[in-house]
Amino acid sequence: MKEAKRPKYSRILLKLSGEALGGQARLNICPQAVRDMAQQIREVRDLGVQVVVVVGGGNIFRGLSGSERGIERATGDYMGMLATVINALALQDALEKIGVATRVQSAISMAQVAEGFIRRRAVRHLEKGRVVIFGGGTGNPYFSTDTAAALRANEIGADVVLKATKVDGIYDSDPKKNPKAKRYARIRYVEALQKQLKVMDSTAFSLCMDNKMPIIVFDLFRPHNLKRVVMGEPVGTLVTP
Which is the most buried residue in 31, 76, 80, 118, by most CB within 10 A? Predict the structure, then answer.
């Protein structure tokens, strides 16, 4: 009898942008888009994979754009961090409605709606089969949720950072503007930096590079793509040492 194929990764960190929760309709929060994400997360959780999610807040408020409109930068960033907690609660609701035990941990204290971030507690939740959603970014202004994802991935000992986007990987130029843009199946950190490819912001990318944390950039909007990545199929672009 043929043995069932096992997942390539046992503990993953999934980075979701706030815009992804807005769906194709670009709403603040699109219930259908959130439900679709929850279904994909459950699909890999059911394989025995431990799942951590870091969510952005750009669909509700982005600190950098707020500062461009006159809001003090640090204040704008805190507002953006609060937006990520709203998104985390929306995703938690969708997951629990389909039977997935979930915990939200926030880097900013708000005990009524989320646990504070404690690394050991987060790992214990994972060991019990719960999905852990991190909101509140790093808890500090001037750092993006990409940096929060890189930081948390290293803290909880994830095998890989999966950066969910609306494109199927990293290209040498914008595929929407250049139909001849080349997609990379695999690229080294140094190459990505030299070619100034926008994988993550520089702080997040450096953190992954320094700690040899692999990154896979892939399209989450294709059905079952998250499962395909976790099973080791050649989906998206792999960034490695």
Answer: 80
